[in-house]
Amino acid sequence: MRLIEALLRRHIGLNAASIGSALIERAVRGRMQAHGLKNSDTYHDLLATSRQELEQLIEAVVVTETWFFRDQESFDRFTQIALHEWRPRHPAAPLRVLSMPCASGEEPYSLAMALLEAGPPAPGFTIDAVDISALALARAERAVYGKNSFRGRELGFRDRHFLPTMEGYALSPLVRRCVTFEQGNILDASLLAGRPPYDFIFCRNLLIYFDRAMQTLALAKLHRLLADDGLLFVGPAELALVVESGFHHAGLPMAFACRKAAGNTTPAETPPPRPSPATLTETPRQPHTGDPAPPRIAEPSSREQVQDLRDPTPAMVDLEIACQHANAGRLAEAAAICDAYLTLEGPAAQAYYLLGLASDASHDPAAITYYRKALYLEPNHYEALTHLTLALEKSGDVGAARIFKRRAERAQPKP
Ligand SMILES: C[S@@+](CC[C@H](N)C(=O)[O-])C[C@H]1O[C@@H](n2cnc3c(N)ncnc32)[C@H](O)[C@@H]1O
């Protein structure tokens, strides 16, 4: 099961601890049963070779819970700022909004309803909506909703924009036309690449399912996608981690919004130009039709992703900062930065050494492997030599410990 959890983490960022290993195990058992498999290693082999099966498992583990106007204050602030602050600064540009992850569409459709009701800001707006789940996107395209999607006390919007049908509440075509859905993985380097920046991004209730390293990668992507004066809305439980990672709190009570931190706003590449102004009716909807193309599943260590993510976030993924965390005893933070650094920048002795320290602190035998990797890259890394000596002694490998002790004595810095 560990191997399957690691595979899910690598491909979609899912941290098994966030939803519980039991839930993942149940999903895996269900899929194994569908294939008549009894052995989880055999199923792991299938996952490693069949993209289709990987997608099925992803569908079984993602949490697509959502509802209209979830955290109402975020939508109120969004329209208020879009119309009264953003629009006067950009009188000729169409407003660009991204909802990622959008799940079954309640969030982007809420954004559309909020804008339509506030008076659509001329010269128009576009709302792009992205999610990894093909099933959730199919529900979004259908736009017929049951009562679970309407949870607040203020449900007047349902009378204004939906028609009750035998199957549920059907959303009006006017609102549906405002949103363009697309299947995608936030960790995929090519996702939305080359698009102009977004003025508002809603990325809510996704980062909570990632560990620190994957959060860092996702936030780097969001940083690149957001306009320099744009606003990023996250979930209530996510604001704290976002403001530690290249964004600062926008100071909007109960809206969980942040902006790019000053001094961290200059991606090396020039952002693509904005599209020419288009009115609402001029912006054709590109429906998500037929069989969806399979989502690009992330390979976070690919060169493509390194190019895509490295430039916008030099301040966040820095080994100096990792060392400062380690020196202050914050080894988990240090390890998260090192993980992200290795993904973005490639092998580095100091990153492996710090990962060794973090593993040592939690009595994880992987520490020895990390120290050895550090020494492979930098054979005279004195701290790695001394810590490896101690770790080998603790593990009972006295012979190897003696060899590294001698190397450490030779590498000891001269006073
Ligand atoms: C809890 S829903 C959040 C929906 C909405 N943003 C909200 O706050 O109500 C989480 C969504 O994240 C999607 N998701 C999970 N991993 C993803 C990834 N790596 N890239 C894009 N979407 C992902 C899931 O399919 C799911 O629909």
Explain what this protein looks like in three dimensions.
It is a single chain. By secondary structure, the protein is α/β, with parallel strands linked by helices. It has three domains: 2-61, no CATH class; 72-260, Vaccinia Virus protein VP39 (Rossmann fold, 3-Layer(aba) Sandwich), CATH 3.40.50.150; 317-411, Tetratricopeptide repeat domain (Serine Threonine Protein Phosphatase 5, Tetratricopeptide repeat, Alpha Horseshoe). It is built from 19 helices and ten strands. The strands form two sheets. Strands 6-2-1-7-8-10-9 form a seven-stranded mixed β-sheet. Helix 14 (319-327) runs parallel beside helix 16, helix 15 runs antiparallel to helix 16 (349-361) and helix 16 packs parallel to helix 18. The longest helix is centred in the first third of the chain and has 18 residues, at 72-89. It is globular. The N and C termini lie far apart (50 Å). The protein binds S-adenosylmethionine. S-adenosylmethionine is lined by residues 12-13, 62-66, 70, 101, 103, 107, 131-133, 136, 185-187, 204-206, 235. Residues 12-13, 62-66, 70, 101, 103, 107, 131-133, 136, 185-187, 204-206, 235 line the site of S-adenosylmethionine (SAM).
